[in-house]
Structure to design on (618 residues):
C-alpha cells in the first residue's frame, strides 16, 4: 500500500514538471519566433537600403565611365592607348576616393563624316558590398571633333625640294611632289617622291592620300591669334609694336595674356638670347634671326610656337641659331642672307607647317633640323576650316 | 504513525490555492508580456511594410522618370499642376541614330514624343507614348514642331492622338510638380521634379533635378 502511494505521488509530480516544461518551451518558441521575425525584418531593411546604395553607386560609376570615355576620345594623347588611334575602353576601372565601384567601358567607332568621328560607348558600372553586387549599364553615341591633329614632322602645301642642309626626324606629308636632297628619317607621304642624293629609306614612302587629311591651314584659314580663348575666357594678344627684339629680351605669359601671345604687323628681327615663353606671330612680314641663343616655347598647350606669314630669314655674320619647341607655321620659306655657314642652325622640335610655295631655300647655307615631338604639337584650333574640337553626346540610354 | 501521516500529506501533493493563484498570475503576466511584444511587433511590421512599400514604389517610379528624362532630347513643356491642371512634362524622348544616319534625322516625330502626367484622382503617374500597331505608322511618323509641344493644350492634344496609350509609371503619387530649368550658357537643360507619395498616411517626399544628358537644339 505504501509503495503504491509513493508511485502515485511520483507520477503526479512528473506530470506537474512536464506541464511547466511545455509552458517554458512555448514561451521560448514564441520569443524565438518573434526574435527571428525581428531580425529577418531588420535584415530585409538593411538589404534594401544596401541595394539602394549600391544601385546609386553603380549608376554613378557607369556615368563616370562614360565621362572618362568622352575625355579620352577628346584628348587621345592623354589616354592609355595600347593600339590604334583611340581609346577602346578598359575593364574594372576604379575612380579612387571612397568609391569602391568599378566600370567596364567599351568604345567602338560607329562611323565618320569628314573630320567628325562617331563612337558607340557602353559603360557598365558595378558596385559590390560583401556578397551583393549590382550593375548599371549606360550606352551612348558620341560625336567627336578633334580639331587639327598634327601627326607629322613637316606638312607641305606645294611641290618642294628638300635641300641637303635639312634633316627631318619624323614623317612628312606633302600635297605636292618631294625631291629629297636632304636627310629624312621617317615616312614621306606625297604624290611623288624622288630621292636624288638624299637619305631616306625607300620602303618608307607612301601616297599622300593614305596619310589621311592633311593638317595644314592655308593663310586664309589660319587662326588669327590676336584674340584667343583659354579656359572659357577671351584674352587679347600683345602687339609688340617694334621691328627689333633686343638682346636678352624675355617675353612670357601674363595675367592679361596667359598664353603669352605676342604679334607684330610688319617685319621683325630677333637678336641674341631672346626668350619667348608663348607664341610669336609675324602677321604681315618676315622674321629675321640675327643672333644666337634665342628660343620660343609655347606657354601652354593648344597654341603654336611661331607663326610667320612670310619668310623666315637667317642672317649671317657669326654665331647664329634659333630654336622653336612647338608648332611652327610658315607662309613663306626658310632662307638666308649674308654669310651663313654650316655652323649656323635653326632647330624645330615639334612640327613645321610649310603653307607657302616651298620649304627651305636650296641656297640656304646653314642647317635646318626638324624633329617631330608629339608632346609639342597640340594646336587643335589653328585651322578655322576644321571644326573646333568638341565632344557631343548624341544619344544616352540607361 | 507520524511517518504514515507525512506520507499521506505528501501523496495528496498538488498546489495550495495560494500557489495556484500565484502560478496563474505569473503565467498570465508572462503570456501578457509576450502578447504585448507580439502586438508591438505586429504593429511595427505593418508600419514598416507600408514604409518599405512606399520606398520601393517611389524608388521604382523615380528610376523610370529619371531614365526617361535624362535620355530626352528636348523638353517642350513642364508644369507644376496648379488649379486643376495636372502636373506634366512633354518631351522629345529619342532621335535614335541608326545605320548610316549617325545623328538621327533631327526631326521630332509623334512616335518620339512622350508625356508624363500626374492623375490626382487615382494618385498615379502615367507615361503616354505612341504605340505602333501596324496601321498607324503614318501617324507615328508625323512631324511635330516645337509649338506642338510647348503648352498644356498641346499635352492634352498629344493624349488624343490615335495610338497614344498610357502606362502606369508610379502609384500612390499624391502630389506632383515638374519644372523646366532652361540651360544657362554652356550648360544643359534640366527638369526639376517634386513628388509626394502617400500610402495609408505614410508620406514620402522626393525632390530632384534631372539633367538631360544628350539634348538636341530645339526643334523648329
Amino acid at each position: 500500500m505504501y509503495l503504491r502511494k509513493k508511485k502515485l505521488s511520483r507520477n503526479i509530480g512528473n506530470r506537474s514538471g512536464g506541464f511547466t516544461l511545455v509552458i517554458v518551451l512555448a514561451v521560448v518558441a514564441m520569443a524565438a519566433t518573434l526574435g527571428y521575425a525581428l531580425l529577418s525584418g531588420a535584415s530585409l531593411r538593411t538589404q534594401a537600403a544596401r541595394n539602394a546604395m549600391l544601385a546609386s553607386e553603380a549608376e554613378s560609376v557607369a556615368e563616370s565611365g562614360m565621362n572618362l570615355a568622352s575625355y579620352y576620345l577628346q584628348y587621345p594623347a592623354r589616354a592609355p592607348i595600347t593600339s590604334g588611334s583611340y581609346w577602346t575602353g578598359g575593364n574594372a576601372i576604379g575612380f579612387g576616393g571612397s568609391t569602391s565601384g568599378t566600370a567596364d567601358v567599351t568604345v567602338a567607332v560607329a562611323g565618320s563624316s569628314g573630320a567628325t568621328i562617331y563612337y558607340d560607348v557602353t559603360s557598365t558600372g558595378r558596385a559590390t558590398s560583401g556578397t551583393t553586387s549590382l550593375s548599371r549599364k549606360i550606352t551612348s553615341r558620341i560625336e567627336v571633333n578633334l580639331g587639327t591633329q598634327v601627326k607629322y614632322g613637316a606638312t607641305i602645301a606645294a611641290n618642294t625640294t628638300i635641300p641637303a642642309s635639312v634633316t627631318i626626324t619624323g614623317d612628312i606629308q606633302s600635297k605636292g611632289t618631294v625631291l629629297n636632297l636632304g636627310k629624312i628619317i621617317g615616312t614621306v607621304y606625297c604624290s611623288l617622291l624622288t630621292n636624288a642624293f638624299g637619305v631616306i629609306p625607300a620602303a618608307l614612302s607612301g601616297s599622300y592620300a593614305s596619310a589621311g587629311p592633311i593638317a595644314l591651314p592655308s593663310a586664309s584659314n589660319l587662326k588669327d591669334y590676336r584674340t584667343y580663348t583659354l579656359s572659357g575666357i577671351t584674352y587679347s594678344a600683345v602687339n609688340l609694336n617694334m621691328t627689333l627684339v633686343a638682346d636678352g629680351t624675355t617675353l612670357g605669359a601674363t595675367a592679361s595674356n596667359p598664353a603669352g601671345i605676342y604679334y607684330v604687323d610688319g617685319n621683325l628681327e630677333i637678336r641674341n638670347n631672346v626668350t619667348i615663353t608663348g607664341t610669336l606671330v609675324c602677321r604681315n612680314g618676315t622674321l629675321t634671326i640675327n643672333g644666337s641663343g634665342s628660343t620660343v616655347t609655347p606657354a601652354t598647350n593648344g597654341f603654336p610656337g611661331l607663326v610667320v606669314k612670310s619668310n623666315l630669314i637667317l642672317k649671317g655674320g657669326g654665331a647664329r641659331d634659333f630654336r622653336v619647341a612647338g608648332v611652327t607655321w610658315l607662309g613663306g620659306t626658310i632662307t638666308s642672307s649674308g654669310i651663313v655657314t654650316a655652323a649656323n642652325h635653326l632647330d624645330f622640335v615639334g612640327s613645321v607647317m610649310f603653307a607657302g610655295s616651298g620649304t627651305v631655300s636650296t641656297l640656304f647655307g646653314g642647317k635646318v633640323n626638324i624633329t617631330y615631338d608629339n608632346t609639342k604639337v597640340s594646336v587643335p584650333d589653328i585651322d578655322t576650316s576644321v571644326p573646333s574640337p568638341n565632344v557631343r553626346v548624341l544619344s544616352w540610354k540607361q | 504513525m507520524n511517518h504514515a501521516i507525512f506520507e499521506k500529506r505528501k501523496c495528496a501533493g498538488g498546489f495550495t490555492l495560494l500557489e495556484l493563484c500565484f502560478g496563474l498570475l505569473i503565467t498570465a503576466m508572462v503570456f501578457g508580456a509576450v502578447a504585448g511584444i507580439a502586438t508591438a511587433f505586429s504593429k511595427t511590421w505593418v508600419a514598416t511594410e507600408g514604409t518599405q512599400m512606399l520606398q520601393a514604389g517611389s524608388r521604382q517610379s523615380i528610376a523610370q522618370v529619371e531614365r526617361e528624362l535624362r535620355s530626352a532630347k528636348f523638353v517642350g513643356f513642364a508644369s507644376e499642376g496648379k488649379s486643376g491642371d495636372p502636373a506634366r512634362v512633354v518631351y522629345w524622348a529619342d532621335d535614335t541614330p541608326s545605320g548610316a544616319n549617325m545623328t538621327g534625322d533631327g526631326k521630332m516625330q509623334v512616335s518620339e514624343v512622350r508625356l508624363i502626367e500626374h492623375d490626382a484622382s487615382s494618385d498615379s503617374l502615367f507615361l503616354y507614348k505612341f504605340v505602333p500597331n501596324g496601321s498607324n505608322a503614318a501617324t507615328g511618323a508625323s512631324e511635330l514642331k516645337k509649338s506642338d509641344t510647348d503648352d498644356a493644350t498641346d499635352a492634352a492634344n498629344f493624349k488624343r492622338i490615335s495610338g497614344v496609350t498610357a502606362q502606369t509609371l508610379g502609384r500612390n503619387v499624391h502630389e506632383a510638380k515638374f519644372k523646366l530649368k532652361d540651360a544657362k550658357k554652356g550648360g544643359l537643360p534640366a527638369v526639376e521634379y517634386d513628388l509626394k507619395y502617400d500610402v495609408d498616411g505614410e508620406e514620402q517626399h522626393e525632390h530632384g533635378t534631372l539633367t538631360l544628358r544628350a539634348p538636341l537644339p530645339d526643334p523648329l
